[in-house]
Amino acid sequence: LDLEAQLVHAVERDELDLHLQPQQRLDDGELVGFEALVRWRRGGELVSPGEFIPIAEESGLVIAIGEWVLERACAQIIALREMTGRDFVVAVNISARQFRHPGFYATIEALLARTGVNPASLELEITEGAVMEHTEAAVGLLHKLRALGLKLSIDDFGTGYSSLSYLKRFPIDKLKIDQSFVRQLKPNSQDAAIVQAVIGLGHTLGIKVIAEGVETIEQREWLKRLACDEIQGYFYSRPLAEPQLFAFVIRQC
Ligand code: G
Ligand code: G
Ligand code: MN
Ligand code: NA
């Protein structure tokens, strides 16, 4: 059976897991949120979302998988709140097709009503590609989602066809600097110049900036010096499944 045929049953057979990768604020070192990353247990092997999300996107299965992810993310927001008394932000990756799906807004609205989560605890990560096509509709939708109280971020910032003008028109809370700019980050490098420019641009527009793929203390220190707001990456923590996730949170709180 090919991946697509098996993926059809992944949700109903309970083969998906949601791992959460912690995000750290740099000025005080606080744990502030998480990115939700889906995993597929296919038979005995773990299939990476880099492999199956494009198939899900192509076939339309990404709508059902995306709803499952949103549902689980809200359940985790509630569980984390019960455990710590704090509201953490959980960021969910929204694929281009999911974002453009006519039922997307209604799905989000119903989810918030049903679960009762604080909307400010749910962040939607959109890629530049998803918002750059059909710009008028995208702008309208982003404003409607923002009016619900959700957080919005641009994922993989700098790798797409970034048009800087959209940052002015889109109600964005956060830019996520792609890991490709962080990997070889060192003082006086080209990547450092790009990262510094993105942070300056974000801050000028009142947008927070998080750097992804931070693996070393040197990268973290350099980002802190550049006034980057938050980091995410193996240096702080890998994406965590449930028992490790709750242990990590208890250690931080
Ligand atoms: O966790 P990992 O590095 O394997 O993720 C690979 C890719 O899959 C990343 O680009 C990530 O954004 C994407 N991805 C992970 N989880 C989800 C999800 O729930 N929905 C969508 N649309 N993409 C996801
Ligand atoms: O496209 P997106 O930014 O959503 O993808 C995030 C992906 O990056 C996830 O699949 C996650 O597993 C991976 N990731 C998270 N932290 C690190 C890191 O420090 N180094 C590397 N190489 N990958 C990371
Ligand atoms: Mn992401
Ligand atoms: Na990213």
TrEMBL record:
In terms of superkingdom, the source organism counts as: Bacteria
Where is the EAL domain positioned along the sequence? 1-253
> Which protein, by its recorded name, is this?
GGDEF domain-containing protein
Q: Which residues of the full protein are shown?
A: 307 to 559 of 565
